[in-house]
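Record type: monomer structure entry
Structure origin: computed from sequence
Chain ID: A
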Amino acid sequence: MYEYIPIFNLLKSLEKLIYKTVLSFLNKHNVLTDEQNGFRDNKSIYMATQTFMEDIQRVMDNRLLVMGIFFNLTKDYDVINHNTLLAKLDHYGLRGTINSWISSNLSH
């Protein structure tokens, strides 16, 4: 009988390798903006929240109105159009094997 845990560990290691490769590529080519906080080193939801609050305070200090619209994107990969995502990755230069791996991961 096959051992499930070693396969799972192998897949997690592969996932981390792909993550690091894609993130390195995006950073190298300046695809992500400074405002992108998720899944980045030295960035966090706390930093995003602090920046958001400082922006609100700055606007209020200038006696302007503030309005917020919020979206819950916790299941965003469940509803995203995979073909559009893959096309965007291709547009930004993530082609070939890495794009095929991501496509396979999204379809399975």
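Annotation 1: The radius of gyration is 19 Å.
Annotation 2: Residues 90 and 99 are 7 Å apart (CA to CA).
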